[in-house]
Amino acid sequence: MKTIHKFLSVLSLLALFTLTFATPALAFDGRGGDKVTIKADEVIKDDLYVTASEFVLDGTVEGDLIVFGQTITINGTVEGDLIAGGQVVIINGTVTDDARIAGAALQLGENAVIGSDLLVGGASLETQKGSIVKGEIVFGSGQALLDGDVTGDVLGGTGALELNGSFGGNVEAYVDATEDTKSSPPMSTYMTNIPISIPNVQPGLTIADSAKIDGNLKYTSTYDLPIPGNVVGGKVTRTAPQVNAQARYVPPTPAEKVGNWALDMVRTMITLILFGLLLGWLFPTFTKTLSEKINSQPWGSLGWGAIAWAAFFVALLVIVLVMIFGGMLFGLLTLGGVGGTIIWLGILALFGLTIMFVLATSYLTKIVVGDMMGKWILSRVNPTLAEHKVWPMATGVVVLILIIELFSFPLLPIGFFGWLINFSVILCGLGALWIWGRETMQARKTA
Question: Which of 87, 146, 196, 205 could form a cystine bridge with 175, CB 3.0-4.6 A?
Fold first, then answer.
């Protein structure tokens, strides 16, 4: 089932990706190309979405700006949130609300103003002297040089951090400063073809005498770092990193393997019997019919089961293609509501189809095959019990699981045969379900 889970994860990501382009029914401006420039006298009165190799904002966006590209430069004003991802992100202008940026080289110039919080993920972060962040900074990076002013707290994780600016709140940093990182080469040596200079930050935590921290300083490091006096207004706390020693893997003994195997086998038997009782109570005719289909058409059930197995994945693929192309088509036609409906219906269809398939392959197939086996066994031992509502199913399930698990005995190299028997049982059950469904539809057509 791991393959199924991985497959479904990919499908879900594709669906969500398509949904982001299909659902916006509100007005927005979209730009794309090799180079996109918003001139100084240009005002975008809506949200702006941009994908370009190079993007330059000299004008004003009266909404949110979402931009992805290789080089992104913000010289103008964003009156909403900024979401930017690229190789290089440079902010020289004003972002009225939050800024979320990610990339290799990230820089806040001396005229940059972030009106609220700054969230950063990348290799190198630099806030130059004169830059202002009026909220908090949360970052994760290879190195960070903070020369600007921050009104709120600073929370970060990095291998090299230098604090030169003014910080109005607390500073908490995980600094991976070890003897090995001290000998690391400067980041600028391997970050080439970058249109901005990459600062060289010493590994560990460096705090300049000119820095000012009004709150507390808390850092995580393997050893004490030099902190200048009169820089930190609150407390200074060093926390040693939690080193989780890898637990030595102790392989289970043969007795433990056998014990776990036996316990799992009993659990499986009990679970299937309980589900079988529930099915027999809710749908007595249905389970009996499937059992008879396998008994009367064993090879046909096996063959149709293989087709049903393949049809499931084909159905998933068809649903995803309809979601993607339907969502994109209606999105391009600015019918985002219709596109969004298609996406959500597709997600529901994927979810429902998958749940039914998992229930069928995990429980239903083994129950109906076990019921067929139980009737065959009891008809030769005690024909009266063979017609009982419960005993054939319970007996057959116990025998079937016992056979599968015996061929999966942990101390013998025959696990493949156990898997093969289990898979054959699943195919037979799916095939019986397929035949039953086909005959039911044909009967309705002729009625």
Answer: 205
For residues 348 and 427, membership in a common domain is answered with yes
* 149 and 207 assigned to the same domain: yes
Q: Which residues contact 39 (CB under 8 A, 6 or more apart)?
A: 58, 59
Task: Give yes or no for a contact between 31 and 52, defined as CB atoms under 8 angstroms apart.
Answer: yes
What distance in Å separates the CA atoms of residue 201 and residue 144, rounded to the nearest whole number?
Answer: 7
The answer to whether residue 26 scores a pLDDT higher than 70 is no
Of 243, 271, 295, the domain-final residue: 243
Least confident residue range of 2-16, 64-78, 283-297:
2-16
Residue 248 pLDDT exceeds 80? no
In our burial notation (b when 16+ CB lie closer than 10 A, e otherwise), range 134-144 reads: bbbbbbbbbbb
Cα(241)–Cα(439) distance, integer angstroms: 66
Range of the domain at 327: 254-446
Pull the structure tokens for residue 27: 């007005």
Q: For the chain, what is the domain count?
A: 2
Q: What is the pLDDT of residues 280-307, one digit of tens each?
A: 888 888 888 898 889 889 899 999 999 9
Residues 239 and 289 in one domain: no
The whole-angstrom separation of Cα 165 and Cα 126 is 11
Q: What is the helix (H) or strand (E) element at residue 291, kind and residue range?
A: helix 284-296
Is residue 420 in a domain? yes
- Structure-token pair, residue 63: 């909404």
pTM across the whole model = 0.53
In this structure, are residues 83 and 104 in contact, taking their beta carbons and an 8 Å threshold?
A: no
pLDDT of residue 227: 86
